[in-house]
Amino acid sequence: MSLFRATAAAATCCVLATGCSPSFVGSAQPAGGATNAVIVRVIDGDTADVRQDDRGRLRIRILGINAPETHRKGWSVGCFGPESTTWAASFLPVGQRVSITGDPTQDATDRYGRTLAYIGMPDGRDFSMESVRAGMSKVVTYGKRPVERFDDLAAAEAAAKDQHTGLWGAPCWGNTDSVPV
Q1: d(Cα 136, Cα 129) in Å, to the nearest integer?
Q2: How far apart are CA 33 and CA 23, in angstroms?
Q3: E strands of 10-150, at which residues?
């Protein structure tokens, strides 16, 4: 086989494999908005596993927030990490029906393969907003692209700081950094 034919065959295989790869099937958030899911497990203050009828089990990295670390291998537990995780587990109990919504300003998944999404409650409350209001997480910008709800989250964070709520009070005073161990 000539070099040209071998290269063309390899390129064709790559295109077909990439275009048909299961990792791309159903991985992007629906363009139409929210989809329904059920909470399967809370990992920590900003990550939860859900189950959707059409996509199965997904690990959701909740958009707009960053909670103190509790499970990062080789790193210390961040100040207020356990409290944030406990709060998240009580707010998102196993079996709770929720809505999952992507953000047009963000990627559908992160570098770890987690789905990036907001989690909405049946009563209309947004998990990210409630977590920031309660001082269980900080507002975060991914790269240089703030989430669509950034301004509202930042206002809630400012109020939590002013009131020394959650991680903004003693003993953390906002310092929730983890360090290598």
Answers
A1: 10
A2: 21
A3: 35-44, 47-52, 56-62, 65-66, 97-101, 115-120, 138-139
Enter the tokens of residue 114: 């987690």
Across 4-24, average pLDDT? 38
Q: What is the pLDDT of residues 67-89, one digit of tens each?
A: 999 988 999 999 999 999 999 99
**Cα distances (angstroms) measured from residue 162 to each of 20, 83, 131, 166, 171:** 51, 20, 16, 11, 15
Record the tokens describing residue 133, joined without a space.
């209001």
In the chain, which ranges are continuous DSSP H helix? 3-20, 81-91, 127-133, 150-162
- pTM value is 0.81
For residue 105, count other CB atoms closer than 10 A to its CB.
Answer: 13
Tokens (6 digits) for 177: 């950094």
The total number of residues shown for the chain amounts to: 181
- Tell me the fold of 28-168: OB fold (Dihydrolipoamide Acetyltransferase, E2P) (2.40.50)
What is the b/e burial string over 48-68, where b = at least 16 CB atoms within 10 angstroms of the residue's CB?
A: bbbeeeebeebbbbbbbbbbb
